[in-house]
Amino acid sequence: MAAHGLLLAAGAGRRMGMPKALVRDPGDAGGPWLTRSVRVLLDGGCPEVTVVLGAGADEAEPLLDGLSGVTVVRSADWSSGMGASLATGLEALAPRADAGAALVHLVDLPDVTAAVVARVLAEAGDGAAALARASYGARPGHPVLIGREHWAGVARSAVGDRGARAYLAEHEVALVECGDLATGADVDRRPTPR
Length: 194
Known about the structure:
This protein is of the alpha/beta class. It contains six helices and seven strands; from the N terminus they run βαβαβαβαββααβ. It has one domain: Spore Coat Polysaccharide Biosynthesis Protein SpsA, Chain A. Helix content is 26%, strand content 23%. It has a seven-stranded mixed sheet, with helices on both faces. It is globular.
């Protein structure tokens, strides 16, 4: 069994002014955030990635054409918040007997690299009981590793924009320090050219 990547990219990005799945850096450095985030998960050690789309899905899905190991699912309730996208992604992974854990990543973390993913997987493992997350200067962040044994509980508690926060607060979660690799900061405003 392995840790499969689960990329949440369904939000409308209201403060961004567009769905974050469609954001590109000025000058297109690194390509669209969507494809960059998928590559981060694949290059970091996830054998496959499930991408959850919602807002702008018709425009975003073609950006993934040609990437192997990627499955797209659409969250019907994406507008109710990240929790719905997380539940949709875990539901899509549930039938996969080869998925022992899901490594949940967000599309709006452009400075998180494959090195962060690799470190979380190396230090936390990929077993069904795993529960770990990257931290940046001791501040918990993403990606978050959720073992299969936790999926049902996480899905039940995933409400609004809180995602797995309530579930993680009630359980022991291993923190994997990655502050030397990235800031882990989410970006809510469109990048401006320099």
